[in-house]
Amino acid sequence: MRRSLKLAAVVLSGSLGIASLAACGAKSTDDKSSAGAGASGFKVGMAYDIGGRGDQSFNDSAARGLDKAKNELGATVNEAEAKSGESESDREQRLKSLVTSGFNPIIAVGFAYQDAVDKVAAENPNVNFAIIDSAAADQPKNVTSLTFSEEQGSYLAGVAAASKSKTNHIGFIGGVQSELIKKFEAGYTAGAKSVNSGITIDVTYLSTPPDTSGFADPGKGKQAAQGQLDKGADVIYSAAGSSGTGAIEAVSTAAGDKWAIGVDSDQAKQPALEKYKTHILTSMVKNVDTAVFTYIKSAKDGNVLTGVKNFDLKEGGVSLSVTGGYIDDLKAKLDAATQQITSGQTTVPTAP
């Protein structure tokens, strides 16, 4: 769930070689680059956003796309983790190290990479880059933006939240108050109000740009959720990366009938959240893995995607999970809302 602070959303992930990872303060998920069966010179790098692989959310979804490329396309892959409090030069060095190590394409996960990607891509016109959740109007031609219609999936989440709320009071927690996360808020609010125009919606952001720590602080997420619960909210949707796990914990341990709504991945299926799954109403799934794999395959096939490739509700870029069957009773209502969006009858706002 991230986006360029000044633009639209795109995920770009890139992976560094071991020596370069150490040099820029990132860490590799393996002792060395790993390859699928029959790997040749096709080397794919991924640079993660704050939280990295294991965040149970956004980065993990990107990682699943990379894993699929490794297993099905025989790609040699390398993964680079971001570090808390890193500078722009850290991100640039991470990408440059991937280039030096021969990775092409390189995928950067999250809007924070936009400036670094633009600079490094301009210096290396023969290397293909992708960035997730950001789309700069003037980015180099060898940069592809992978974006999503988060507001559409969030609209459906809002429909579910308002339909399940018994207090007519729900909440939204955003990791960083960026243009991207405002799309989640806008869609969620519109969907909820389509069910109940008078519903109360609390909104809390955990950090403001350039501070992106709101995506990786479960403690803050838990505290924010508890504050909303204390005010009467009984359904809380978090678009906050790993900080959202704290919100899910708060909702799951609260007294009474409370629901959490996950984001990016089907969070009811994440091992670290197993004990809370009976309190996760649904998750607004953002299929970053599909976008990552599609991009990598296009590069492997010699026909790399260019420009901005958006994945919306109609293309299956966003959806609601149904694990647990907790929204099964809302199927007709959600199907109708989906049809109205995909047909163009309903235009979902992208700003609160």
From TrEMBL:
Q: Which Pfam families match?
A: Bmp
Instruction: Name the GO cellular-component terms.
Output: plasma membrane
Q: Which Gene3D superfamilies match?
A: 3.40.50.2300
The record's subcellular locations are: Cell membrane
Q: Give the record's keywords alphabetically.
A: Cell membrane, Lipoprotein, Membrane, Signal
Q: List all Basic and acidic residues biased stretches.
A: 80-93
Please report the record's description of how this protein sits within the membrane.
Lipid-anchor
- Output the superkingdom of the source species: Bacteria
How far does the signal peptide extend, from start to end residue? Answer: 1-22
Q: Does the keyword Transcription apply?
A: no
Domain (ABC transporter substrate-binding protein PnrA-like) spans: 44-342
Where are the stretches annotated Disordered? Answer: 74-93
Q: Main site of residence? A: membrane
Q: Which family does it belong to?
A: Belongs to the BMP lipoprotein family.
Name of the protein this chain belongs to: Basic membrane protein A
* Organism, scientific name: Kitasatospora cineracea
